[in-house]
Amino acid sequence: MSSAGKSATVKSSLDRFFKLTQRKTNTKTEILAGITTFLTMSYIIFVNPSILADAGIPKEAALAATIYGSVFCTLLMALWANFPVAVAPGMGLNAFFTYTVVLGAGLSWQTALGAVFISGVAFFLLTVTGVRQKIVDGVPPLLKSSISVGIGLFIAFIGLKNSGIVVSNKDTFVSLGKITETGPLLALFGLLVASYLMAKKKKGALLISILLTTVAAMITGFIDYPQTLKDVASFSLPSLSETFLAMDLKGAFAYGILSILFSFTIVELFDNLATLIGLSRKAGLADENGKIENLDRALQADAVGTMASAAMGGTVMNAYVENATGISEGGRTGLTALTAGVLFFLTLFFAPLIAFVPSVATAPILILVGALMLSEIKAIGFEDYTDVIPAFLTIILMPLTFSIAQGLAFGFISYTILKLMTGKHKDLHWMMYLISIAFIINFIWGSH
User: Fold this and answer.
1) Domain-embedded: residue 294
2) 345 lies in some domain
3) CB 48 within 8 A of CB 88
4) Which domain holds residue 70?
5) Model's pTM, two decimal places?
6) Per-residue pLDDT at 65 exceeds 90
7) Is residue 260 over pLDDT 80?
8) What distance in Å separates the CA atoms of residue 162 and residue 183, rounded to the nearest whole number?
9) Where would you find the membrane-spanning parts of this chain (predicted)?
10) If you ran DSSP here, which 8-state letter would residue 201 be given?
């Protein structure tokens, strides 16, 4: 068979498997969309290992877990669900893992990985039984939006802290750092570059900012230059040996992880389901009745991906809103995700270079991701105080307590109590009672 004939056969096979013609797209469009998605999401390869390293996970293993987990879950989205959506460790949940569960609660990272695995099992069971949708439907849109805003502020606060722009102060708790020093100046440079490129709608804006800031750090002597080619690229893939199956399930159960599981589960439920629904509608995958083909498979892929991620040494997986860039370029099928997944895999060969990226280069990305999540505040109404106060407590207590879980708890409990006290119990879904009671029980247990 001629090369032209083989090419036609491959295109025909791709068309049938991914339903390209049915979804009014083609191979070229899907591949370009996948490249676009990868460019906008690839910053996670630099940011996530840095966050997990703060929890004590060896950075090489954290990098390997980030990439392998992203590849595995994205391929599930592509081949099982046929969704044009790439998946990676969720921003916010990785910060919760490190700064709340490990550093805040004092758990080992192995125990925290056990909690991630258990939450993945919980996601899967909630999905296949249909309970996942019921939980999401039972929580008012107000709190869903508040959760996104609060996590955004929490992530931004971590970015400001890691960059040295904000530092601890024994008198005022926090204060402005020495911003004329090299580290904070580099972070401000990266923030300015990323902001400019995003304003200009440049593809890969966050990735470009990370790379330019890293180069600037080398020029200023803040970090060392790569000395050899092996410092840049390698055919020796990063190892998972230090984290593979290192999760401590027994320790997670022994600790009593109700609050941790609740936080992982609730944030993942709202964030991932809302993102998947929004992206699939943008891709035109919803029918005239609003039903989305293979949404259940997409949610199952996410749950299985989270379990696999924990087994490798990574955190909860999530569909990224950045997928909207690839969908805007015409991505409509799993071929878009497949392309992004292949590109994620190829980054494994540049793992040595990634190790050179300093925290001042990734900190601006955390700040900007937090800023982007602030957009959800427009969905919060400010007329009813029984809405305003729970929203405020959810948002403000996440960064101030350095805990997503505490912000969630105060938000849910205050919403339920205020609605009951003001005779607005009709605004409460029965699921809100269960969630609020669970958080109250956790507060009581945690005080002993």
Assistant:
1) yes
2) yes
3) yes
4) 23-370
5) 0.77
6) yes
7) no
8) 10
9) 31-53, 65-87, 107-129, 141-159, 179-198, 205-223, 252-270, 342-369, 389-418, 430-447
10) T
